[in-house]
């Protein structure tokens, strides 16, 4: 009804979905605490193996229309820009990535993104 395809046990605690609309997440993806995700996001596998899916850290902001796929790792406290296509790992914490294909664009994440884990 809302356009979400999110299997159970993919996200850890504190998931925030900002808008209704298309949102597809593969059942083998693992996403940490306090993920903040927007509409139009697709997170899935590349290939046929269960292990060909992303692992995303804690406190990650995922902008509208972003696509993440393949056996990649995204570090903690990162931001993924709108419409980014992420097909390689970014294990460094506290960075912003964006573009097609995605690349690191900043070492200073947006201060307005939720910082739950930073304040614990």
Automatic annotation (TrEMBL):
It holds the Pfam family Hexapep. PANTHER family: SERINE ACETYLTRANSFERASE (PTHR42811). This is Serine acetyltransferase.
């Amino acid at each position: 009804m809302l356009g979400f395809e999110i299997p159970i046990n993919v996200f850890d605690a504190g998931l925030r979905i900002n808008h209704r609309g298309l949102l597809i997440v593969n059942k083998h993806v693992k996403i940490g605490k306090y993920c903040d995700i927007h509409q139009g996001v697709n997170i899935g596998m590349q290939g046929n193996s269960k292990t060909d899916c992303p692992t995303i850290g804690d406190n990650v902001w995922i902008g509208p229309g972003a696509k993440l796929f393949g056996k990649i790792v995204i570090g903690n406290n990162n931001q993924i820009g709108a419409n980014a296509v992420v097909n390689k790992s970014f294990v460094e914490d506290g960075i912003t990535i964006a573009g097609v294909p995605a690349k690191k664009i900043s070492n200073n994440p947006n201060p307005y993104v939720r910082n739950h884990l930073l304040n614990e």
